[in-house]
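dumping the sequnces here before i forget
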Amino acid sequence: MDALSRALSALRWIGPGGIWRALRYSRTKARLDQAYLPPRAPETSRPLGPLREARPRPTGLEGVLEEGSLEVEAVLPRLFRLLWGPGPAAPEYGVDPAFRPDPGPVEVREREEGWSVATAALELRLPFGGGLCLRDRQGRVQARLEGPVRRGAGWEAALPLPEGATVHGLGERAAPLDLRGGRYRLWNRDPGGAYGPGDDPLYLTLPLLFLVRRGEGILLFFDVPWPGEVDVGREDPGRIRIRFEGGPLRLYWGAGPVPELLSAYARLTGRPPLPPLWALGYHQSRWSYAPQARVEALVEAFEGRGLPLDAVHLDIDYMDGYRVFTWDRRRFPDLPGLARRLAREGVRLVAIVDPGVKVDPGYGVYRQGHEQGRFCTLPDGTEVHAPVWPGWAAFPDFTDPEVRRWWGDRYRVLLEAGIAGFWNDMNEPAAFVDRGDPTLPLATRHALEGLGGDHRAAHNVYGLLMVRAGYEGVRRLDPQRRPFFLSRSGWAGIQRYAWVWTGDCRSDWAGLRASVATVLNLGLSGIPFVGVDVGGFHGRPSPELFARWVQLGTFLPLFRTHTAAGTPDQEPWSFGPRVEGICRIFLELRYRLLPYLYTLAWEARRTGWPLVRPLGWPDAEDPGLWRVDDAFLLGEALLVAPILEPGAEGRAVPLPPGRWIDVWSGRVWEGPERAELAAPLERIPLLARAGTVLPLAAPVRRSGRIFSHPLTLRLYPPADGEARTSLLYLDEGEGWAHEAGAFRIDRFTLAREGRRLELTWTTEGTYPWPFPAVRIEPAPGLRWTAVRVEGGTGRQEGEAIVLEGPAARVEVRFS
Ligand code: MIG
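..and the predicted 3d for all of it:
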């Protein structure tokens, strides 16, 4: 956006008062930030120098460098923790509070050329000559790191960027899946207005790098929330360079198979909790559905048209003058009544909660926060006030555990009103400015768990800690509930508390196209539950673009339509009957996929793996597959190749090795050939991995109703002589009884000999089978010709075999 249209839209949204506040705040902030400007001349680099001596510890060592120190600890068999000094102490917000190191047997030795710390999987070598390397137990070097250098109060580290390696991670980036050739900033930022491809940084950054070479991974997580920058082979094509402006230099470093490494990272920073089943349903949102009658009419319209819906989001206009934890009694005369009525129909309300608390002594949350000293202050003790939606706002200091508790308890009002989920926005934190960085002054003081520091040390974790406060509050206030939080900002570990969405993307084809890479890199940053504003946020999508966006959204963990204030309606029926028909097909398909998606959510809970994965996952040696960012795998079973261009009626996609079956036509493809797939507007190219048993629910209109209808198992035959196992995870879909064992895992092994398929079904767990019947259906184009069921009862009915419940073995012939 150019300056003039920016100014005009600002005028429209925040009014003259808002503009005046933004101008004033920008000037004050610029003045305050002066003291923090980097020195004119680049500061000289001081290498810490090579290792002089070391003292062994049970799982690592304490090293003395020429100009500093280095502590090494093996925390998991494939993960080492390195802490260089001198540096200030700092909280470890990225690390799961429940994490306990578990490296297995560790051997610490002094050798002739240096020290070595080895686990059963990896050896970290610290040569006396300087530098560090990771070797596998066969002695092959997997990764190297140059000894870091100190620059003023900051740090710089570097590592070789081998040819043929692809680079991923770094949180949310409007960049290609392979980040090579770019420079990326580590500073959470509301880009203001809409962002597009190439804009950097965005709302959620994190210093995690994932390199993949010949199908093997290297992981570097710099546990440093300070502002920084990562240069991925741009200055020097053969190196990655990381700079931080301050903080302690703490690195978690590992190498090995990609899925295993990502699991190690998830153990360290926390695995996502199992979401409530409804969160995987369809969400309808806009800025804003208000007043109350409009929300009611919206839900009725879904009902009247027979379209599925699980959640409606309330954006900022539900609040009383944008005061968080309140609602506008004129616009929402009976919010609890509305929530109750919708809940009876199985529709949930998700309400937005921003961090900025309106400065207004007549408003309880502010008054209490002010009196109790909950808000951030400047060094002179005055409360920091920055303009956001409510006008001047104060910002809770979430780096103080007592403030987190206080904030968490505020959710009681919304829980009691029947709000089922929470949407945390503006938590970079964002403020309105006319120039400069749209956040709090760098001088802002933070508690940082009692260690103290300024905004440079706290900014990047502010969003994470806001969500943590809310999540922990809801857990305390309503222990039976699985909290649902959606966050815009975050840092390492955000997955412990929230799903994220990719913010205010433009409603254009470029925005649609770019979102696939963004979601993939978030997944490789340890954040499995991600969504994109379906239809795009800023602007109005064409009917064709909207249809293609709905098709993509169907296969993303969060499936939510959302749009900015002032844009035309963006509901499934807003683009004419043809697009409404397409929305119906895909919303129904989403509900049919719920058992599969829920199983993937459980897998993410166990492993930290993303639901949406690059085509190279888990171990493709061809770097080309790790660069494809216009197609993805959804779990192991599905390959999704969305249409991302106007007018396209089909597309090509390079296939990972193995056999793939077109879900619509049944046509068989053999990877690594390139598939040419047709996609008229009613279709998205979609392939199933041969051998898959895909669990499909009935096309119901609420997630909770899937259990009232038979479950379909669709069989995609493997190649002759082969077999594959697919899983299905089930539990109540809400609450925590699954942690006490109330779940079940059904394992389906599908084997093929010629025209004969054998399905073996085993079960683990005690949760009773919740579906009234099971339909076993062939992939399209196939027919069952003979059936034998063992350990259960079944009969052939049309194209399906219908069982009353689980069976031990089903044998079929097909033609
Ligand atoms: O300054 O709450 O990204 O989803 O609709 C804009 C209003 C604030 C930004 C979010 C967007 C939301 C909007 N918010």
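The pocket of MIG is lined by residues 287, 315-316, 352, 425-426, 488, 503-504, 562 (CB under 6 Å).
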